[in-house]
Amino acid sequence: MILMHFNAVLMGCFFCFQCFYLVLPAEESIQEELGASRVIKRRLAHLQERDTPGIKETMPPTWWQKNRLDRMLVEYFLRAGYYNSALKLAKHSNIEDLTNIDLFMMSKEIEDSLAKCDTKPCLSWCVDNRSKLRKMKSTLEFNVRKQEYVELIREEKPLEAIRHARKYLSSAESGQVSEVQKLMGMLAFSSKNPENPYGDVFDMSNWQKLVLQFRQENFKLHQLNSTSVFTATLQAGLSALKTLYPLIVDVVFPCQLP
């Protein structure tokens, strides 16, 4: 009887333990959704301000256009890597809630870590977004694991490289099998051998390729265009200016005067 009671207590504790670990992700998701809803509400209110009679009459005529331009510039600065300028402009114009500063700052941390050959933040991001990345048919996590394997070979740690490959690369998809086979062939050559046929795999520029791939897939994940709104607007304006002058046929320029 005591044993049955003890087993029931253990089962109850185990159930509570499982519920605790299910509640934590649920609470995090709820907080993320609440934060996103607040941002959407703030941006909708900003769009409505343009046609609000009370605000419209008390503010300068171009105030809304200026805020829109500042938003474009902040996003452009963030994409170009001018984070301090973007933060200062957003704070000065009071448009922090109207921009994607948090997203770009998180992206900056992961990009900086990859540039320093640190894969942990990027892999953590891949785990958090694994289901979405799988739908996108992303190869980022595979490429990061591949780079970890290459670094183990570079450090002359073949046994650790084999264990790493068995754990992370053995479940590669059909389209990646040939690449995994190529990686296994690297075990037969030293990274310090100048005649190593896998020299391109050891190229340190592969880290920069990971940075670019993460940036592109992060944009795609959050439905951001590869081109900033400021750049697209500027290109549209320049294209319109190019077509303006041929339409003016009655203008007499000074050089045409006799």
TrEMBL record:
PROSITE patterns: CTLH, LISH. It is found in: Nucleus matrix. Coiled coil: none annotated. This is E3 ubiquitin-protein transferase MAEA. Pfam families: CTLH (PF10607). InterPro entries: CRA_dom, CTLH/CRA, CTLH_C, Fyv10_fam, LisH. GO terms for molecular function: ubiquitin-protein transferase activity. Residues 104-160 form the CTLH domain. One of its GO terms (biological process) is proteasome-mediated ubiquitin-dependent protein catabolic process. Keywords: Erythrocyte maturation, Signal. GO terms for cellular component: cytoplasm; GID complex; nuclear matrix. Residues 1-25 form the signal peptide. It comes from the Eukaryota.
